[in-house]
Amino acid sequence: MSAFDEALLADGDALAAADVGGVLRALASSGAQVREALDLSAEAAVARLADDDRPRAVVIAALAGSSAVADLVQALAGRNCPVPVVVRHGGPLPSWVGPLDLVVAVSLSGRAPGPLTLAVEASRRGARVVTVAGEGSPLAEIGARSGNVQVVPARGVRADGGDPRSSRVALWSLATPVLLACDALGLLQASPADLAGVADRLDAEAEASRPWTETFVNPAKALAAELAGAVPVVLGDGHLMAAAARRAAGMLARTSRVPAVSGALPDDASEVVATFGGPFATGAAADVDPVFADPFLDGPAGPRMRLVVLRDAPTAVSDEDRRLADAITTTAADAGVRTSELVADDGTPAQRLAQLIARTDFASTYLALACGVDPARSPHVADLKDRLG
Fold first, then answer.
1. Out of 3.40.50.720, 1.20.120.450, 3.40.50.300, 3.40.50.10490, which CATH number does the structure's domain 6-15+209-370 have?
2. Which residues form the SIS domain (predicted)?
3. CATH number of 22-196
4. Which strands sit side by side in the sheet containing 102-107, from one edge to the other?
5. pTM
6. Is the pLDDT at 309 greater than 70, yes or no?
C-alpha cells in the first residue's frame, strides 16, 4: 500500500484511470440497481407473498458481501418486528424450520455453499423459499420450484468486468427484492414507492460524491482524507445505524484493506470509550511532543484511532440517544481522539440508511484509490480462494 496521495484524490480523471475495475461507476449505479430490481421483482410476482399467511419466522441465508442484505432487513424491521428474523451464513438449518416458515436465500452467483445448502434443506422440509440468485444457477432452480419465488438480481454496472459482479457493489440489486418481500409480509416498510425514494437518495449521494467534485465539497472524499493512516472505529448511534456501521467496517476492510471495527449505541458505548485510553488512541510515539519528535530517533508515529460516528437524522433520535452520542464525541475530544461525524438527512428509515451506506461505500473506495490499492480485487483473497480450491 502506498502513501495517501491527496493530489490523486483531487483529480477526477486520475481517479477514473486508477479505478480500472470500475468500482466507483458501479457504486454510482446503486439507484439504477434499485429501479431495475423493482421491475424484476414485479415480473417475479414478489408481491403475491402478501396473499399468503404471515410466516412464523423468517430465516435469511446470506454469506460474505451478501450478508449486508440481512443487516438491512434486521435494521429496518426493528425490534418490534412481528416475527423473528434469523440470519444464517451456512448450515445447518435450524431444526425448527418447517412449512410455517420462510427462508430467503441470497447469492449473486447462485452458488454460494451456505445459502444453497440452507435453501435445499428448507425446500425439503416444505418451507416457503424466496431466492435472489443468478439466472440458471443451482439456487435459482430451487426458487423456481412451485410455491417459491425466484428473482434475478439487477445487472446494474459490473465492477471489474467480471461475472459474477462483486456482491459488495451489487448490494441494492440483492437487497431490493428481499425488502419488497418483507414489506409484502408486513415485516417492515419498503413498498415500491418507498424504494423509489431510496433510489433517488442514492442518486443524490452519488452526485455529491462523484470523482470530479473537489475534496472539500465532496463528503466521501473528505471522509477518505480523514481516514488516511487511521484505524477506524465506526459507531452507529442506534439500531438503524448499526447496520450502516457494520457495512462501513466491512467495506473499509475488504475494499480499502484497512482493519476496522464497528459498534452500536447504546450497547457498545463502554467498550468504545475504553479504547480512548489505549495505544491506538494516542499513537506509538505519543509520549514525545510532536514539535520535537525525531522520526530517526523516536521512530515513525503509529496509526491512530479515528472514531467515525454515523448519526441518524436528528428528528429520528431520542433525547437520550442524542445525549449519549454527544457525550461519547466529547469524551473522545478530551482524550485526543479525532472524530468524524456523518448525519443522515430526514426521510424514511430506508432512505436514511441508504444515504450513509452510500457515503461510506464511496469513501472506502476513494481511500483505496488514493493509497494505490485496487478496490475491486485483493490478491490475498484470490490466493485464499485458490488454496481452498
1. 3.40.50.10490
2. 45-187
3. 3.40.50.10490
4. 85-88, 58-61, 102-107, 128-133, 149-151
5. 0.92
6. yes
